[in-house]
């Protein structure tokens, strides 16, 4: 048993924890980064990166199916999951080596093992105590289930879905949020029959309703089935599949059930409550400086209530490091965080939805404009449909950018600059967008909202 002292002790080496470690080391602090599994956490090993690799294989499958439309003679035959998984794991391995090397090159002590908060500023790992002048809690999240719905066998979460070495013939997805629709999209492209079950009235219910409806239209066209506003009642497993009962009395059969009903904070049994950290239903409560109720103890990432996104975790980690170093960083505005759902078509947004904007500023003080991608040359070339919807305060800045269409996730960077820099449509209308790009649809939408539409019929 040994005692070690550092400026900063970080529990959890995922997006939030490792970003805090890297920035703290840059700022000259001594850092201990405690990780029980692998640096990179959920995002790198079980989240963002592996799912996006599968979505790329899915895109290649769709392009191959449609190749003849573009005069290319190719034929889609089947998906070889062994190769898909090898391609995916190769990406993870390269990024993991890169991250491990980066961390190793800095004055950061990586401690392998499971840590527990045993005093407000001490984490104990394998009997050794790591005490920090400041402590950052960043232990991430896990796939949640519903009461009475046990994970196992043919009832799986995203963790097991990523481990599959076959394409299911028929699959049910419980939950029409980000993770649910991404897997639905992957499996449909791979050749599965897919049905999504969502208790709320729409798919991706946290988005502007127009995007939800746009995605529902697109999924219908793709043959992805979904049941909205209907609640799950139970599941039975048998040798070859599952039978899911819904509260409306219907029963659905499939080979697998993916449970994608959200992610819970990974905080149970880690000593947080015992040490007096204020919590709410397992989440760690912080103020806008990401400080808990205990001075010198901070929290970052999915354990802090709000958007559970990797880039939010990175930003929070950087913020805390700068806050501890006395740099007085600007507080993170959650509404300014871009969100992307990488299904086909993609859904991307930043800022306020139309409904939220009207609620916040008054129904008559907000204008919206929808630019249809039918008027965008590059979208026509790619064969994608969709739109860009802008929300502005009357005589004021753009406060929401909402998009649906293939590859629109790549456009959200400009959307987030517009919203976060509080640009007026008239400002953006003077900026030149390259032709022919999908990006110029953003320019066109702002031209129209500034009262001078170019390639727009309305
Ligand atoms: C399928 C899926 C797809 C996703 N796709 C996206 C996406 O496209 N874009 C996006 O922005 N976000 C995505 N996310 C969300 C993203 O992965 C998370 O928001 C992000 O990983 C949160 O970072 P974190 O640092 O809070 O936690 P994590 O990344 O979960 O890291 C926490 C780390 O703490 C470690 N740990 C936990 N307890 C202990 C302990 N007691 N001792 C030592 N170590 C411990 C864990 O091993 C883990 O490495 C996705 C998530 C999933 C599941």
Tally the helices: what do you get?
Answer: 13
Total individual domains: 3
Q: What class do helices, strands and sheet pairing give? A: alpha/beta
Average predicted local confidence, pLDDT: 97
CATH topology of the largest domain: FAD/NAD(P)-binding domain
Kindly estimate the percentage of residues that lie in beta strands according to DSSP. Answer: 25-35%
Shape: globular
User: Termini, distance in Å?
Assistant: 72 Å
Please give the share of residues in helix. Answer: 25-40%
What would CATH call the architecture of the largest domain?
Answer: 3-Layer(bba) Sandwich
Bound compounds, each kind once, are: flavin-adenine dinucleotide
CATH class of the largest domain: Alpha Beta
Uncertain spans: none
Radius of gyration: 23 Å
The tally of strands reads 24
CATH superfamily of the largest domain: FAD/NAD(P)-binding domain
């Amino acid at each position: 048993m040994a005692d070690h002292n550092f400026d900063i002790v970080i529990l959890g080496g995922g997006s939030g924890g490792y970003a805090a470690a890297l920035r703290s080391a840059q700022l000259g602090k001594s850092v201990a980064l405690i990780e029980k599994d692998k640096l990179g956490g959920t995002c790198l090993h079980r989240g963002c990166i592996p799912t996006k690799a599968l979505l790329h294989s899915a895109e290649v499958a769709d392009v191959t199916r449609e190749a003849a439309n573009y005069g290319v003679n190719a034929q889609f035959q089947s998906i070889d999951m062994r190769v898909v998984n090898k391609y995916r794991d190769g990406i993870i391995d390269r990024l993991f080596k890169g991250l491990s090397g980066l961390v190793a090159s800095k004055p950061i002590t990586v401690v392998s093992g499971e840590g527990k908060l045993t005093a407000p500023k001490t984490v104990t790992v394998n009997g050794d105590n790591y005490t920090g002048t400041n402590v950052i809690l960043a232990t991430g999240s896990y796939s949640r289930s519903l009461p009475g719905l046990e994970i196992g066998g043919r009832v799986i979460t995203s963790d097991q879905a990523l481990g599959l070495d076959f394409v299911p013939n028929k699959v049910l997805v419980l939950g029409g949020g980000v993770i649910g629709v991404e897997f639905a999209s992957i499996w449909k492209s791979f050749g599965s029959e897919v049905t999504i079950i969502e208790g709320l009235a729409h798919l991706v219910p946290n988005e502007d309703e127009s995007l939800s409806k746009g995605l529902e239209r697109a999924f219908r066209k793709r043959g992805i089935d979904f049941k909205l506003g209907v609640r799950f009642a139970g599941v039975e497993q048998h040798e070859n599949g599952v039978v899911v009962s819904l509260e409306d009395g219907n029963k659905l059969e499939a080979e697998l059930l993916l449970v994608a009903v959200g992610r819970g904070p990974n905080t149970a049994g880690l000593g947080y409550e015992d040490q007096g950290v204020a919590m709410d239903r397992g989440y760690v409560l912080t103020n806008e400086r990401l400080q808990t109720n205990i001075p010198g103890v901070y929290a970052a990432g999915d354990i802090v209530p709000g958007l559970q996104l990797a880039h939010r975790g990175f930003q929070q980690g950087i913020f805390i490091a700068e806050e501890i170093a006395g740099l007085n960083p600007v507080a993170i505005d959650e509404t300014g965080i871009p969100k992307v759902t990488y299904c086909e078509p993609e859904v991307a947004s930043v800022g306020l939805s139309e409904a939220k904007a009207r609620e916040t500023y008054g129904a008559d003080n907000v204008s919206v404009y929808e630019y249809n991608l039918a008027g965008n040359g590059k979208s026509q070339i790619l064969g994608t449909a969709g739109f860009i919807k802008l929300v502005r305060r009357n005589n004021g800045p753009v406060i929401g950018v909402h998009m649906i269409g293939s590859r629109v996730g790549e456009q959200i960077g400009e959307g987030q600059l517009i919203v976060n820099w509080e640009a007026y449509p008239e400002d953006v209308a003077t900026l030149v967008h390259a032709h022919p790009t999908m990006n110029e649809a953003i320019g066109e939408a702002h031209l129209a909202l500034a009262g001078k539409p170019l390639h727009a019929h309305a």
